[in-house]
Amino acid sequence: MKRIIAVNSNCYHGYSIEEAIDGIAAAGFHYIELTATKGWTEHVFPDQSFQRLCRVKQRLQDKGLIPFSMSGHCNLMDTERIQDFIDNIHLAAFYGCEYIVSSIGEAHLEDKAVVSNEEVAKHIRALVPELEKNGLTLVLEVHGDHGTGKILKEIAQLVGSDRVAVAYDTANALFYGNVDLSEDLDASMDAIRYFHLKDKGGERTVWDFPALGKGWIDFPMIFDKLEQAGNDSPFSIEIEFTQAGSKNLEEVNQAVRDSAEYLKAHGFEL
């Protein structure tokens, strides 16, 4: 099945967007997920100069990389951060992206009571007009309090818009959700429109996310389920190493190359 296969520039956390673009292109990829996450990885960001953003766009074109999505993570439950996210929507549109990725954020009130899925959906529904105006789909990432595909499917259904769907992060579903991946995928498959392909090394609760094929996630099972379901959602590879981070730029480049070889060995075309 033909699908978009990209690399998340967040793999190059701590390195420049130019180094990310060069490494991803050199590994043979044609698509990139740009990262615009405030205070973490600001490879592109709304407060950068127009000249700077244009230079990144030109480098992407020169290297033959298509920025089809943007990692624009904000706490969507924090009303003070909503404008930040709208700025990211506009930035994603500037780069011609089709998708913007965000986790929902901590769904707690001031008294620490957990907000209902209906309340979460109400917050997200307010963003739909901006998504429509900019031609974007918001894919909600499996993360934190919303650590399963099943939970996010329910929220996406409550939002009730084709502009909102699920971004399934294969390692986060284990790290945060402690799920049976097979069962959770079955429960959420029809709402999934995007995948962060991320492997898991070490114990479940340890921050260890190596190159694809270097951990213990059963990717052949995942690929099988996708084929059976006819789900051709884009793949975006995410490698986050350990909490110590990568040793150097070459280690990141090698992990990206290793991930490319792993997918090609399983029949995928980059």
What would your notes on this structure say?
This protein is of the alpha/beta class and 270 residues long. It has one domain: TIM Barrel, CATH 3.20.20.150. It has ten helices and eleven strands. It has helices spanning 17-26, 50-63, 82-94, 117-125, 128-134, 149-159, 172-175, 181-188, 219-229, 249-265; strands spanning 5-8, 31-37, 41-42, 66-71, 99-102, 137-141, 164-169, 192-197, 208-209, 235-237, 241-242. The strands form two sheets. An eight-stranded parallel β-barrel has the order 1-2-4-5-6-7-8-10, surrounded by four helices. It has a two-stranded antiparallel ribbon with strand order 9-11. Helix 1 runs parallel beside helix 10 (249-265) and helix 4 crosses helix 6. It starts with a strand and ends in a 5-residue tail after the last helix.
Outline the secondary-structure elements.
Blueprint: E1 5-8, H1 17-26, E2 31-37, E3 41-42, H2 50-63, E4 66-71, H3 82-94, E5 99-102, H4 117-125, H5 128-134, E6 137-141, H6 149-159, E7 164-169, H7 172-175, H8 181-188, E8 192-197, E9 208-209, H9 219-229, E10 235-237, E11 241-242, H10 249-265
Parallel strand pairs: 1-2, 1-10, 2-4, 4-5, 5-6, 6-7, 7-8, 8-10
Antiparallel strand pairs: 2-3, 9-11
Helix pairs in contact: 1-2, 1-10, 4-6, 6-8
Give a short summary of the structure:
By secondary structure, the protein is an alpha/beta fold. The chain has ten helices and eleven strands. The protein has a single domain, classed as TIM Barrel, CATH 3.20.20.
